[in-house]
């Protein structure tokens, strides 16, 4: 006969007992035991109405009778960290069959700082203060109410704080005397914090003992200083208030209150304190750079790096700047450029390698702000001073992209080829094909596009469209490659003074000089369209748009000409997706105006539905993840912000 083991009986008993131990108005529901979550509790008020307050429970039962075993057990660090990440708070409930008592503690209260090095588990301990009774249940209710308020964005300055001392004296100063000194100094910080004694207020908790200062909001945001015992007793009260203020700033940053966090630092002259608290500064910096104190934050970084070598702090700053580098805020752009230039000057004499890396960072900034000439110059200097760039595929790719944008297509293609020799990265293939195409090597470009599309089964509309158009011009003009005489082609493409028959002939001559002359294709498209050659007009407008990707008029005319039975529907779909990729909603807006003007509102409604379906995936937000490279053990700079499976863009 199958026997039911004692532990299973004990687990069921603990579930039953826990449901009886909580207030009658609360509802306990069993949950699947994934990750140790045994149940869910929903809180109802005295009017028997749901409050919306919910928490999860992990039950840990024991039949042992030793106090130490009852009031503690080992829990894996991975599980603790998992609980802390959950949106719904987790209550750990220890049931003693011997005492018929529950001890409870929020998972967020567990400080993993005290876990042993390389340990996989940590001791979770309880005291008499953790016994689940009516008073404790009221505490749980208050905790959840505060938690909802914090997450709902109700925090404002000054912040209420409740200070508790866990030791009789701090740095030799009696706690009763220290709190008096804190009260006398707190006026200096009146716009940041105020002392309260009402446990019902939306307050931050401050715990101070001989070694630590712990500040936070309900264990969901905050930090702990572990060096209180090293503080100067003569300045203890004021220094504690400064550190409490910095901790509150960090807590607010963790909760998403960037500007409030920055106001605490910059409106109370805490910059000097922050400069010596490097660990806090490193964690707070990304938030400060997202605030209205952007310029001031960069100045602190420069000061810290001037006073002491702190390349890690620079790295954090540079990574944050990469995330915000596309800002159109001119003040932020100027502050960023100043910071990066100052970094270059810092290393000009002392470290050739860091000087080269700093030039690289400035070059990337210039790339992001469309100053490709300056970007290329910085990248070339970077390679001269940091030789490791000679072996980095991504470096050649970025330099190739900058050269492409300034019209150095042949050099760009050579650098993309070098990139492929180092990395064999498939996403570089279409960029290489693009540079070959603009270098006039049409057949080689088409072959490379086909190779990429066949190898990856790519859905990137722009590369498909270029491959199709290249195949057409190679066949139509019986050409494999061409020396592009861009200047002469543009001169010939000016047909404003010619009759239609002579104009078309001259435009063909212009294309014989340069098959990628956008003006020639646009004017030829106009002639074809006027004479009813809709298919040819669509192709000519498309060629113009692919050469001048920013030309919304060309994209719209190409799309409008393609919405018929003459042009394959696949081409129409590719045009819509590629035009949207390069010009976004502005392209769609102009396209809809043209369609409504020619076909009417009812037809527009039907067409707009089709286009919305085509763009369903393209409109989904994609993270524009920048690149932050750190030297690995093999001496290569690898990107630590993305993984190999991240999706790649379809253009430059």
TrEMBL record:
Protein name stated in the entry: DUF4365 domain-containing protein
Lineage, broadest ranks: Bacteria, Pseudomonadati, Pseudomonadota, Gammaproteobacteria, Oceanospirillales
Pfam families in the cross-refs: DUF4365
InterPro entries in the cross-refs: DUF4365, TPR-like_helical_dom_sf, TPR_rpt
Ranges that cross the membrane: none
Domain DUF4365: 14-142
Organism annotation: Marinomonas transparens
Domain of life: Bacteria
Coiled coil (residue ranges): none
């Amino acid at each position: 006969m199958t026997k039911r083991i004692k532990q299973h009986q004990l687990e069921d008993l603990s579930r039953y007992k826990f449901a009886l131990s909580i207030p009658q108005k609360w509802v306990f529901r069993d949950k699947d035991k994934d990750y140790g979550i045994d149940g869910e509790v929903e809180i109802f008020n005295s009017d028997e109405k749901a409050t919306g307050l919910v928490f999860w429970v992990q039950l840990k039962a024991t039949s042992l009778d030793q106090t130490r075993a009852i009031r503690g057990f080992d829990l894996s660090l991975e599980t603790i960290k998992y609980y802390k990440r959950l949106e719904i708070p987790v209550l750990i409930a220890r049931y003693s069959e011997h005492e018929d008592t529950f001890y409870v503690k929020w998972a967020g209260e567990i400080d993993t700082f005290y876990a042993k090095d390389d340990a996989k588990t940590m001791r979770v301990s309880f005291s008499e203060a953790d016994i689940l009774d009516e008073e404790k249940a009221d505490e749980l209710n208050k905790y959840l109410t505060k938690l909802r308020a914090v997450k709902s964005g109700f925090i404002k300055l000054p912040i209420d704080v409740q200070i508790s001392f866990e030791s009789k004296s701090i740095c030799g100063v009696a706690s009763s005397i220290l709190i008096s000194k804190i009260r006398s100094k707190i006026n200096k910080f009146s716009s940041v914090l105020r002392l309260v004694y009402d446990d019902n207020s939306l307050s931050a908790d401050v715990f101070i003992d001989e070694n630590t200062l712990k500040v936070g909001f309900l264990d969901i945001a905050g930090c702990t200083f572990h060096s209180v015992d090293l503080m100067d007793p003569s300045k203890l009260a004021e220094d504690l208030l400064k550190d409490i203020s910095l901790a509150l700033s960090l807590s607010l940053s963790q909760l998403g209150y960037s500007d409030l966090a920055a106001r605490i630092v910059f409106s109370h002259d805490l910059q000097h304190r922050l400069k010596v608290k490097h660990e806090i500064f490193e964690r707070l910096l990304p938030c400060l750079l997202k605030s209205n104190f952007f310029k001031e934050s960069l100045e602190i970084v420069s000061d810290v790096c001037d006073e002491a070598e702190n390349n890690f702090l620079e790295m954090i700053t540079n990574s944050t700047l990469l995330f915000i580098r596309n800002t159109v805020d001119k003040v932020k752009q100027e502050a960023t450029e100043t910071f990066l230039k100052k970094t270059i000057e810092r290393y000009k004499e002392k470290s050739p390698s860091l000087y080269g890396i700093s030039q690289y960072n400035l070059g990337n900034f210039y790339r992001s702000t469309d100053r490709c000439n300056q970007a290329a110059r910085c990248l070339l200097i970077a390679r001269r001073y940091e030789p490791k760039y000679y072996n980095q595929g991504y470096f050649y790719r970025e330099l190739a992209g900058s050269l492409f944008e300034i019209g150095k297509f042949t050099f760009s293609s050579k650098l993309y080829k070098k990139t492929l020799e180092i990395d064999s990265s498939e996403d570089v293939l279409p960029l290489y094909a693009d540079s070959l195409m603009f270098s006039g090597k049409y057949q080689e470009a088409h072959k490379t596009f086909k190779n990429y599309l066949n190898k990856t089964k790519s859905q990137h509309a722009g590369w498909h469209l270029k491959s199709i158009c290249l195949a057409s011009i190679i066949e139509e003009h019986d050409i494999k490659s061409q020396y592009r005489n861009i200047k002469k082609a543009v001169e010939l493409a000016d047909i404003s003074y010619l009759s239609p028959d002579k104009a078309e002939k001259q435009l063909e001559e212009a294309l014989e000089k340069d098959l990628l002359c956008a003006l020639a294709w646009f004017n030829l498209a106009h002639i074809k369209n006027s004479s009813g050659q809709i298919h040819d007009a669509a192709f000519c407008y498309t060629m113009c748009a692919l050469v001048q990707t920013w030309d919304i008029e060309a994209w719209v005319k190409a799309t409008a000409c393609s919405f018929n039975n003459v042009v394959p529907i696949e081409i129409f779909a590719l045009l819509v997706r590629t035009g949207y990729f390069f010009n976004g909603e502005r392209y769609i807006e102009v396209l809809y105006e043209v369609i409504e003007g020619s076909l009417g509102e009812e037809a527009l409604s039907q067409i707009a539905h089709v286009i919305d379906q085509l763009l369903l995936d393209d409109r989904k937000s994609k993270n524009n993840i920048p690149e932050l490279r750190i030297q690995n053990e093999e001496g290569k700079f690898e990107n630590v912000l993305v993984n190999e499976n991240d999706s790649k863009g379809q253009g430059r």
